[in-house]
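Appendix B, record 7
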Amino acid sequence: MAERKKVEARWSRIELVLKNTSVAEKGNVACIDSTDGSCVPSAASATLTPIGYFEESFTGDGTRKIKIKLFSDILVNFLPNASSGTAVAAADMLKSCYLNADSSVTTTTTGRSVAGKVWGVVTGNGAGVWVQMAT
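Structure tokens (predicted):
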């Protein structure tokens, strides 16, 4: 039986791409927009989830990352992204993901248990998903 390497990290800060034309100000609340998984400043909206405070100020261009101090530390695990079912995408930020039989994660819910909450998706070489397990 093969053993799998376990990769976990405790995050108190995170760097995310600030949505194009969004204006972040140091000390203001940073949010994730559930409609597309983007990082935006707080606003009057039913689709935003606050995650922390911006640590710098600038206007987003859709590619530049901004530093955010999270409201509380989180423990995340790095798991393979699905090759069967539906793979987790960047737009799934803070949404639930589900376990596959091969210990990868997917957004397909049918017949699967919740793995946890998506905190990041890595594509290309070393691809996988950062998951806050059991949330």
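Remarks on this record: Residues 95 and 117 are 5 Å apart (CA to CA). The chain is about 0% helix and 50% strand.
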